[in-house]
Design a protein that fits this description.
The complex is a heterodimer of chains A (about 325) and B (about 290). With about 325 residues, chain A is mostly helical. Chain A contains 14 helices and four strands. Chain A has one domain. In chain A, strands 1-4 form a two-stranded antiparallel sheet. In chain A, a hairpin with a 4-residue loop joins strand 2 and strand 3. Chain B has a single domain, classed as ABC transporter involved in vitamin B12 uptake, BtuC (Orthogonal Bundle). Helix content of chain B is about 75%, strand content about 5%. The chains are: A mainly alpha (about 325), B mainly alpha (about 290). Chains A and B meet through helix 5, helix 11 and helix 13 of A and helix 4, helix 9 and helix 11 of B.
Chain lengths: ~325, ~290
């Protein structure tokens, strides 16, 4: 457990340090996007890296969180934290429904169904204009205040939104760490390794997977809510397959299985996308190639690359 | 009554194309246990190549025959060159093969946009199939009848191949018990390549056939992919032919749903899917 605490502290320091650095290196809105996607990617990591569930439809829960937040802000004018709570609950509810229908399928068919459901929700978002604004997106909702009981902070400035987003990221990471270092996390990892055996031992695998899926859905929903708060619009594109693919790829890029891998991946991916898309609209072509190279040669993503580099540099001549 | 007949035939026509595509997908899925995430992109690229061949040669028939062959070669190259590097006993490999296929699909989509532009394309049916013919009380487009016929012929040919030839029997056996077939001394890699080629060719053929009736655009791949997945799951897991029935069913459901509401088609498709998932999670004809 001591090692676990040490890693957690190190991870927290890395994230906090990185988040201090980020606005100096990149534009504020890009930095906020990175933080938001890092939350979604961490949720994805919980599913794939720790439970072995590949979901190709995370954008659906991201969008649902965003639409929930937008509608709540539009009609009820809640403050920031209750809004995010609603986003999280919406994401969790949606993933519970999808999970109920799909988790009992074999792994391969589960993956297919997550993609199918994501398309379903995308079409729903396009058509249900009263709730989602259709193709033009949900807009005209106000940015909430951050109401902490005694004091009410305005989120009008981008730096305030950024700090809020970073705090939410840290909170999600804390929940994530707590989960994976707990006995539940151990069971999840066992499910990833050999589901039948875990079932044979007597664990209710279905319930564990459902819990994992719902937590991931809640986190992704919160990310979507933050997106709504930051951009004050929820375009239908956030529910698209491209967005789901982006979440998958940035997590792979960073390294699924390492707790902070996807956070790193979100940063690198978002930054690269922003930089390269200026020069070439067809940059996904390069990125697809890049992902293939990573899967072939560096499956653990950038975190594996860093670990290997560190191991290489640590080797001194007399140790060989 | 006339409307019903026309609707039914239209539904069967689109259903036939869905069935063909999904059948190809089931092949690959059954044989190699990989959901081919590039299947939709293969459909789209096949259609675009058919479009270009049509433009180059002026012959629809040539395009129809050549495009699937070219795409099959591409499929084999993809499988041998890329996918086979990821085979292994580790079940995690399945996830990575899938991701690689999806990355390939994205690359293919970009290539399509680079090569043919971001707007869609469509063509007219070949001259011999223009116009409509009388079927009892109604008039029905000749080309759509051709699609029905062509699908029937192709599926029958596949059935003959699978059920009545040596390689077909090997494929069936390998889908059922891969290790056994390997132990008997057969090179499973040939079977893999063959299955992937066949699945790809079917998708490409469906793509070319769909050019005159639905056209094609670079982003159609994702729609076809999702739809094919739904059809495969509805049709039944572990059953090769279930996908055909499910494809026809979905085509019919979509067609009749438009009578209710413009948006009803896709709602009904996913509605059927959720119903099947609730009541019969192994699919309508599933065995596992």
């Amino acid at each position: 457990m001591r090692a676990g605490h040490w890693h957690f502290s190190l991870g927290a320091v890395a994230v906090v340090g990185g988040s201090f650095l980020l606005p100096y290196l990149l534009s504020m809105s890009l930095a906020i996007d990175i933080v938001i996607l890092a939350i979604a990617a961490t949720a994805f990591n919980l599913m794939l890296g720790y439970t072995g569930l590949l979901s190709f439809g995370q954008a659906a829960f991201f969008a649902i969180g965003g639409y929930a937040a937008g509608n709540v802000l539009l009609h009820l004018g809640l403050s920031a934290l209750p809004t995010l709570l609603v986003s999280g609950l919406a994401g969790a509810a949606a993933s519970a429904v999808v999970g109920f229908l799909t988790l009992r399928l074999r792994n391969v068919y589960f993956i297919l169904m997550t993609l199918a459901f994501a398309q379903l929700i995308y079409f729903l978002a396009l058509s249900w204009r009263e709730v989602t604004g259709g193709a033009s997106g949900l807009r005209n909702f106000p940015r909430p205040e951050l109401n902490l009981g005694a004091v009410s902070l305005s989120l009008e400035s981008t730096i305030a939104v950024y700090i809020f987003a970073v705090i939410m990221l840290l909170a999600c990471l804390a929940v994530f760490y707590r989960l994976i270092s707990s006995p539940i996390g151990l069971v999840l990892r066992c499910i990833r390794e050999n589901q039948e055996r875990v079932e044979a031992i007597g664990y209710p695998v279905g319930r564990y997977k459902m819990m994992c899926f719902s937590v991931a859905g809640a986190m992704t929903g919160i990310a979507g809510g933050l997106y709504a708060i930051q951009w004050l619009i929820v375009p239908v594109g956030v529910a698209s397959m491209d967005q789901s693919a982006a979440i998958v790829f940035m997590s792979i890029l960073g390294g699924v299985g390492h707790p902070l891998g996807p956070v790193l991946g979100a940063a690198i991916y978002t930054w690269l996308a922003d930089v390269i898309s200026v020069y070439w609209a067809r940059w996904p072509l390069l990125f697809g190639l890049f992902i293939i190279v990573i899967i072939l040669f560096l499956r653990g993503g950038l975190t594996e690359g860093i670990a290997r580099l560190a191991a290489f540099l640590q080797r001194t001549p007399e140790r060989r | 009554m006339d409307l019903f007949l026309i609707k039914a035939l239209n539904g069967l026509t689109t259903g036939a194309l869905y069935a063909m595509t999904a059948f190809g997908l089931t092949f690959i899925l059954g044989m190699m246990n990989i959901p081919n995430f590039a299947h939709g992109a293969l459909f789209a690229l096949g259609a675009y190549i058919g479009f270009s061949l049509l433009g180059l040669t002026g012959s629809f028939w040539l395009a129809l025959c050549l495009a699937p062959i070219l795409m099959a070669i591409f499929g084999v190259a993809l499988e041998r060159g890329l996918i086979q590097r990821l085979y292994g006993d580790n079940p995690e490999n399945e996830t990575y093969i899938l991701l690689v296929l999806f990355a390939v699909a994205i690359m293919m989509q970009e290539v399509i946009i680079l090569g043919w532009g971001a707007s869609g394309q469509s063509t007219l049916p070949p001259a011999s199939l223009l116009g409509a013919t009388q079927l009892g009380p109604i008039f029905f487009p000749k080309y759509r009848l051709f699609i029905l016929l062509a699908t029937l012929v192709v599926i029958a040919a596949c059935w003959l191949f699978i059920e009545r030839t040596h390689y077909g029997a090997l494929i069936k056996a390998a889908i059922d018990k891969r290790e056994m077939v390997m132990l008997l001394g057969y090179d499973i890699r040939v079977l893999f390549a063959l299955s992937f080629a066949l699945g790809t060719a079917l998708a490409a053929l469906a793509g070319v056939l769909s050019l005159p009736i639905r056209g094609v655009h670079p982003f159609i791949g994702t729609d076809i992919l999702a739809l094919s997945f739904v059809i495969v799951v509805i049709g039944g897991l572990g059953n090769l032919y279930g996908a055909i029935f499910a494809g026809l069913l979905i085509g019919m459901v979509q067609e009749f749903a438009t009578l209710v509401h413009p948006l009803a088609p896709w709602i009904s498709v996913y509605g059927v899917m959720m119903l099947v998932l609730l009541l019969r999670p192994t699919g309508l004809f599933g065995t596992r």
